[in-house]
Every structure is written in C-alpha cells, then in structure tokens.
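Write out the 3D structure for:
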Amino acid sequence: MSSRSLLLPLLLLTTGLPALAQQPVLPSRRETTEKPQSKPQTEKPETVAAAPPLTLAEAIRLGVEGNYTIRVSQQDMRVAENNVTRGNAGQLPVVNGNFVRNFNRNNVRQESGARPEPSIANGAKSNQLQANVAATWTIFDGLGMFIAYDRLQVLEQSQQQLTRATIEETVAAVMDAYFVVVRESGKINSLEEALKIGQARIDLTQARVDVGVSAKVEVLTARVDYNADRSALIQQQESLKSAKINLNELMGRAPGLDFLPQDSIVVARDLARDEVLAAVRQRNPRLQQARFNTEIADLDRKLVRASRFPQIGLTSGYGFNRNINNASFFGAQLVTTTGRTYGLNYGVVASVPVFDGFNKNRQEQNARITQEQTQLQLDQLQLQLDADAEQAYAQYQNRLALLELEESNILLARENVAIALERYRLGLLTPLALREAQRTQLQAETRLLDIRYQAKQAEIILRRLGSGLVQETEGR
C-alpha cells in the first residue's frame, strides 16, 4: 500500500457512532409509582435556556475539522509528503545557469624597456560577459541516495501515524467532553426533580400548619432545605457552563456558543480484554510511530556507512565568455581588443574519503547508540500502553458492575421517595425522614450519572488505545 494512499481526513469508525448516538434514558420506572419521575439525560433542563441541538456525531465532525492541533499536524504531514522526492534524496542531476556582466573603468600605465616613455591610458573602459549552464549528477555514493529516499518514505509514514494519533486523541477528548456535558445536564435534571419534591413538601407542610396540625418551624425547615437545593442547582449550572466552554474549545469554535446535547451516555458491555490488548499492539498509532522511528535510526546508520565509499559524479556544461578591453596597447598605440570563448565541457568527478579525523567512526557509533535508544523507547512505550490498557479495562469492568448495581438501586430510591412523599402527605412520616429519602434519591441519581460516565470514559480510552475511534480511507 502506497504511503500516499493513506491520506486524511479520517472517518468515524462504524462501531463508534451507532453505539454512541443512541438515546437510552435512565432505567425504566416501575409502574407502581407515578411521581416523582426523573427526566431523561437528554431532556433540556428547565433552568437552562433553549439552545441549538448538538449531536455527538456533529461534535466529533466539528472537532476533527476545527481543532487547531489537528490542523497543525495535518500541515506537518503535507510537508513530509512533499519531501518524498527522488531529487530530495539526491538521485537526480542538478542543473544551474549562471550569468555575469561586469563593467570596468581603469587607469592603465604600461612601461616597456623598448620605449623610453610609458604608455598611459586614463579612464579606459572594459566589459565582460559570462554565461554558462552547468550540470552535475552523482551516479554513485555508496547507495546513500537510495537509503535517503527510503528514509524520506519512512519519515512520511511516521508523520502520518503522528497525525492519526493526534486525531484519535482529539476525538477521544471531544467525546469525553461531550459526555461531561451530558452528565452535568443530567445532574441539573436531578436537582430540578429534587426542587419539585421540596416544593411539594413545603405545600403539604404549609397546609398542615394552616389547619393547626404542624408547627411553623416545619415550614421554615422545609424552605431552608429547598433553598439549599436551589443553591446546589446554581452551582451545578456553573459546572455545566464550564463543561460547554471546554467542549467548544476542543471543537475550535467560540467558547460562548450554547447548545443542548442530544445523545445520552451509552456504555458498550462487550469489550473483551484479549481483543483490546491485541488491537493496542497492532494498531496503536503512537506504537506504530515508535516502530518507524527505529527504522529511521537504522537508515541513519546505513547513511553513515555509505559515506565511507567513494563518490563518483558526472559534470557537463556549456559556456560563453566575451571580453571587450578598451585599454590594450599595441606598441605605443592604444587599441580595443575583443575576445570570445564558448563551447561544451564534460568530465568525471570522483572523491575518495581518506582520513577525516575519525569522524566517520564517531558518527557511526552515535548512530548505533541512537538505534539502541529508539528500540528502548519502543519497548518502554509498549509496556506503558499495555499497562494503560490493563488499567482502563480493570476500571471498565469495575464500572460495569457498579453501573448494574446503581441502575437497580435508582429504582428503589425513586420508589422510596414516592412512598415517603405519600406517607408524609398522610401525616405518617416525619419531615426529617422525607428529607433523608429525598437526599438518598439525589445521591443515587448523581452516583448513577458519575458511574455511567466513568464506564464510558474507560471504554473511550480502550477504543483510543486500540485505534478504534477513527479509520483511514485509502485513496480519494
């Protein structure tokens, strides 16, 4: 496969968006209770102003197209592609055209033993015209020109992997930032539901006070708890705003642009450890780049070896030289002379390195050290990626187990609040117990959102390490 056929832009992997752009909501509620009902993650919070919708697919597209880090890396890749030429490797002849035009005004004094008086010319003019075309072509340099061309190709492939890694990491960052916005929006929904429960508690308590069943202190306590929830909501709105600013920055657009996320957090539950580790070792772009770096180091060493051989080149050219001199003497008489020379020249140039102060030995030793160093860096990166994959997979497995637990727990918490609110309305439950049930539901909602996000975060890391977020398309 030609390295030039591996051109970007990169497309979203087929396993990415269909799974990530679904619209599941929080676990379905039991039909035994009608209130309170928590909103889906993707429903617009009531306390957040209306804004244009933004899907995950659109966010990734904007991130790939507008992110400045990706755009800079793509320019570097274009430079690397332009450098892969036979001429840059020294395999083609070099032809130069030269032109020189000189004008002189001289004072000439010429003495001769045959004449008693010197010959003098003041302000004598002369001019010279030189033009030539010269060509040089190295035909043997110890195969260094072919090694240099291979090196340029490997450099291009290395830059392609670096650009791919940049895109993978940016897509992962955009997805992570998008799901942070979804999580923070979900927390606002939970707080809004808590406020509805708090308002219902105030209304019920006030009604009981009006009929003399409860004391006013219970209403005041209910209002204090309600205000505490409002305070938490205001702080949560700030967190949501910060999350949106961060996502806008990653997408390369104005930080103040508002939007509403349309996709919820959907966690894939079928990632296998062995498949993930195999993908990391085979497709990770950072690892591929490190492998190319070892090839480059090996070619650098071969280039040093090639410099020990003789260099043989061909030279050829065609020149024209005209010289007009107005200060020439013929005997005692001042005359003007004109000379012209033109014609073809050609030959062979050879140079043989004999002694350079042992610099070639030093350069080859350094190249060998660099080669060993790049291999060590490759081994270190392999170990680091394996460790990152193992850690991310352990977190992924742990969060899946917690997610299953919290999805069951949230149903219990919601039903508990509905029952507690009804018992409080009937006067069978204390305000403190109702508040505790309300707080328990809010904590359960928050834990569920956090754990679902953390599980998705681990999944994104695993897909990024295995280069599963984007794919290259061959040709254009």
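Strands lie at 6-12, 53-54, 94-110, 119-140, 260-261, 311-330, 333-351, 470-474.
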